[in-house]
Structures are given as C-alpha cells and as structure tokens.
C-alpha cells in the first residue's frame, strides 16, 4: 500500500488503480512503446500511456478488433467522449487519466478528434490508391496528430515542436506504408498515391500492384519524401527544448535504419522483409538518447 501511494505521488495525481489500468492497455498490446517511454519522468510517462491507450482503443475499433457491431458509430461515440473529457466527464479509468493529462499538458481537443477521423478513414471500405491530398491527410491524422499530442506531453508545445510532429509523423507513416505494402495487399489495401501509380503504370489493384515493374520507382520516390521529412524533423528538433525532444529523436533514430534497409532492398520484391541491423538501430537510438 505504501509503495502504491509513492508511485501515484511521483506521477500524475490519479488513483493508482486507474494508472495501472491504463498501463495494462499499453502492455497488453504487445508494443515496444511501453519500454521506449520508460525514459520519461513518471507523470509524463503515465500521460503518454493514456494517449497511447486512447489511440489503441480507436485503432482496434477501426481494425475490427474491438468486437463492436458498428465501428463507425463507435468512433462517433469517441468524438462525443473526447468532448466530454474537456467538460470533466469521465466514464472509466482511461477517461480519468486523460482528463488529468489534458489539463496538465494542455492537450488540444482537435488533435484527439483528428486521430479518430484518421481511424475512421480505415473503417469500412479499404483505402486503395488514394490521391496525394488524401494520403497526406491520412498521414496527418493517424501519425502527425499523435505527434502533436506527444510533443506537448514531452514538454514542448511550441510551433517548432508542432513542426517536429508534422514532419516526423509523416516520415514514420510513409516508412510504415513502404514496409507494409505486401501485408496491406493481403487486407485489400493500397496506400500508395494514385498519381504515382498512374505515372509508373502500376495497377491500382493491391494484389496486381505488388509485382508491377513500376512499383520500385513509386517506392523510391515515396522513400525520398520520407527521408526529406526526417531531415526537416531533425532541423525543427534543434530549435526545440533538447530534453523534451529526446523521445522524438530516439524514435527517428530507430526508424531511419528501416527506411535505409527498404531503399537498399527496393520494391521489386516487396514481400521479402528488408534486412535491418538490430545492433545499428540500438546504437543509433542510444546515440539519440545521450545527444
């Protein structure tokens, strides 16, 4: 009991049972996110767990893993639930921790709503060959919006920190898209932009696109865009609070080798996993931590 009170007092002013519940959502997802956030002070780590748990729950709804009969209606319920958080209305442990995090770190409601809207884009009919504007909107909602919430929790809510979120979110999401082309095709999804597919004569059918001759060129162009976003994110980080940007630097350092491995492999055989050096990723992540 004494240990429990000490943990709560060193972190967010929430009931320990609520904090434990939120952490269980994070750890149950099997993500490495929980380990990565251990570098944060207790209060910021707990707030990030709450943000991640929120993202996890709406993502599960969109992916059909939440067991709800009408996913789109469930996401609309989350819009109303977010509005309620800003009025102090809580329905469960996650809400109670989110309310504290929102007020302590001045998290903006639009960023939560953007995340929900991003998940709604994945709800229902699969995304197949979106146009450039739709792809960018998708990246902003599912990745950069999470970044906007995260940098505030990390300790920097400046315009430059929002630039970090803008560019790093897009860099990470484009890297994910380029890595998961074959996996997404298995779910009848194709996140590559229609303009590039047309330019290089790549079919807009997810399965037919996999081994199209022009897919390699499409992949290389998007990879360069991702690399440009990584570069702009690093430039913006240099204008931010260095300690606050440590988690963002570590995430960028961990993902950059994945992008490099993808570029080395190319997209002529997108179903073959790229060879990513685990020691290199760990070394670069460590270097980002001590920088």
Automatic annotation (TrEMBL):
Native organism taxonomy: Bacteria, Pseudomonadati, Pseudomonadota, Alphaproteobacteria, Acetobacterales
Alphabetized SUPFAM superfamilies for the sequence: Terpenoid synthases
Which Pfam families does the protein's record reference? SQS_PSY (PF00494)
PROSITE patterns xrefs? SQUALEN_PHYTOEN_SYN_1, SQUALEN_PHYTOEN_SYN_2
Question: Keywords for this entry?
Answer: Transferase
Origin species: Gluconobacter kondonii
* TM region positions: none
UniProt protein name: Squalene synthase HpnD
């Amino acid at each position: 009991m004494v240990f429990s009170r000490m943990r709560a007092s060193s972190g967010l002013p929430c009931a320990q049972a609520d904090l434990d519940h939120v952490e269980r959502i994070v750890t149950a997802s099997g993500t490495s996110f929980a380990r990565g956030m251990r570098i944060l002070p207790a209060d910021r780590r707990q707030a990030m767990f709450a943000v991640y748990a929120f993202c996890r729950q709406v993502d599960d709804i969109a992916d059909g893993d939440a067991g709800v009969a009408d996913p789109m209606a469930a996401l609309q319920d989350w819009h109303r639930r977010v509005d309620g958080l800003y009025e102090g209305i809580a329905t469960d442990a996650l809400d109670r921790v989110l309310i504290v995090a929102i007020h302590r770190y001045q998290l903006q409601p639009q960023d939560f709503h953007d995340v929900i809207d991003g998940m709604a884009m994945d709800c229902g009919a699969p995304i197949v060959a979106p146009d450039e504007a739709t792809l960018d909107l998708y990246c902003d909602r599912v990745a950069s919006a999470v970044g906007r919430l995260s940098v505030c929790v990390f300790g920097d809510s400046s315009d430059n920190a929002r630039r970090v979120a803008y560019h790093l979110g897009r860099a990470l999401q484009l890297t994910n898209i380029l890595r998961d082309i074959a996996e997404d095709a298995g779910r009848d999804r194709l996140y590559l932009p229609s303009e590039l597919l047309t330019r290089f004569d790549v079919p807009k059918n997810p399965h037919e696109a996999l081994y199209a001759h022009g897919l390699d060129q499409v992949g290389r162009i998007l990879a360069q865009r991702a690399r440009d976003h990584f570069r702009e994110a690093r430039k913006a980080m240099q204008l931010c609070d260095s300690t606050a940007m440590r988690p963002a630097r570590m995430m960028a350092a961990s993902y950059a080798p994945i992008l490099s491995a993808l570029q080395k492999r190319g997209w002529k055989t997108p179903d073959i996993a790229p060879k990513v050096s685990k020691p290199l990723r760990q070394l670069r992540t460590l270097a980002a931590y001590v920088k």
